[in-house]
Amino acid sequence: MTITDDSGFIGIVNFDQYQSFVASKWDFEMIKEHIIGQSNLNRILFWATCHEEDWRVNIVDEATDTAAFSEFRGFLEVSDRRLYLCNYETLTMAAQFEDVKLPEAHLSDLYIELKNGKYGLKIRQMYDPENYQREELEVDFEIVIQEVKKNMEIYHNRFDQIPWCKW
Questions:
Q1: Topology classification of domain 2-154
Q2: Continuous H helices in the chain
Q3: Nearest partner of 10 among 61, 43, 73, 57, judged by Cα
Q4: Inter-helix orientation angle 28-39/88-96, to 10°
């Protein structure tokens, strides 16, 4: 899948549970704290890309043999059989306007179908953001998704910042 990114952030989200509205007048710190809060409720995993690009994302159930530059782990709850890719632009539109329904039409086909339940995810950044050479890559991000089958209640995110975010 390919997702546009005009701000340096993308993610994967359960739009069925994600609470999108923040305020009609928000700032970056408010949005950042909102996304972190929703992440800690297992509704979204969101990260900085460090570049504006059309990102190529591969969603798999096992990591490939290709070495990742960096990675982080988190958990998501699936409640409507889908997880969607999302970008900062769509989250900020919904954060400002209560009537914006997510996913927006231009991102509505960027999803993976899963059984309802809890999932562990590993987000793998396949490039060095300081030495980014797009032509050398086939995939920019690999998302490994595995169902949590035991002790689901103990798996919660505990983020205090957006991964890979420098500001």
A1: Substrate Binding Domain Of DNAk; Chain A, domain 1 (2.60.34)
A2: 28-39, 88-96
A3: 57
A4: 100
Q: Which two tokens stand for residue 36?
A: 């972190």
Look up residue 67 and give its DSSP letter: P
Residue 140 contacts residue 127 (beta carbons within 8 Å):
yes
Residue pLDDT, tens place only, 27-54: 999 999 999 999 999 999 999 999 999 9
User: Residue 56 is which amino acid?
Assistant: R
pTM (predicted TM-score): 0.95
The pLDDT value given to residue 133: 80
Q: Token pair of 65, please?
A: 């043999």
Question: Which residue matches tokens 């086939």?
Answer: 138
Q: pLDDT value at position 132?
A: 81
Of 11, 17, 1, 15, which Cα lies nearest the Cα of 110? 1
